[in-house]
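Below is just one:
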Amino acid sequence: MTCDDTRLLLHAYLDDELDAANSAAVASHMRGCTGCTARYDAYATLHKALSQPVLYHRAPDALRQRLAAAPAASVPKPRSRAPLAWAMAAGFIGAQLLSSPAWFHWWRSSEMADPIVAQAVSAHVRSLQQQHLMDVVSTDQHTVKPWFEGKLDFSPRVKDLASEGFPLLGGRLDAIDGRSVAALVYKRRLHVINLSQWPDEGSASGPAIAREHGFTVIRWRADGMRFVAISDVNEGDLRQFVLAFQNEPGVPAAR
């Protein structure tokens, strides 16, 4: 386990939220890393300080009594809108719905705990380390796709998105959700986009967006595969990348 991996897991380790394997890996790393140990000690000191009872105060009884005796605040009734205003609002909403692809649904899932997101972030951070980004370096999809043959029990989907502003850089083998996955590497200006994919028997699902440690993660299921895209590009660019990757050849991506 690297220092980057350990830093991502320190808070969960401190709160005893890791599974046995990750907990043991973090503990083993810290035994030989003074930097991560010092960071953990600082977190532990802050955690202990914020848990002191002296920081919490009971409201005075007099205040409680005043609040209990106070009359309930009256809430003004909302003014009814004119029929024309409702019609204009409905027309605007309808226009927005018609102007966007009906088949493409986005929803935020930052509140939804998903271990796949944390693992994808960890894999992304590892890949950004020197000499760890790609096992095969090529902008040609017909070179990258055959490279995975014999290394995985499935054939990954590989697309050249240079015309959409996301040139293919290469690919590598990675591990997410306890299995080997195909990781494709794309570029958006100076930013790296990692797209991992592996077989998944779950039903198809539209893209879900999450934010983790400053990275944007978009994941979805389609055609018996699970896809996870992650980068530090802005959310709009990563959405555009996913749309371009999902589109069939010859079909321009929605912008």
Remarks:
- The first strand starts at residue 107 and ends at 108.
